[in-house]
Amino acid sequence: MTVRNTAAGRPGLRLPGSGDGLVGLWERTENGGTLVSGPTPEGGYQVDAVLPHRRT
What is the dihedral sign for C-alpha 29, 30, 32, 38? Predict the structure, then answer.
């Protein structure tokens, strides 16, 4: 999964309960996945994640 955004035109809003997205993704990768995230050269942000999947 790849998520990429462009540079913001203005500061973002800080909403209650926000801020756990990357932590939640990181926790899901602990059993064999990968997570790479960071700023893009254009000023945006990109997240690349491979999440483990267990068939039931």
Answer: positive
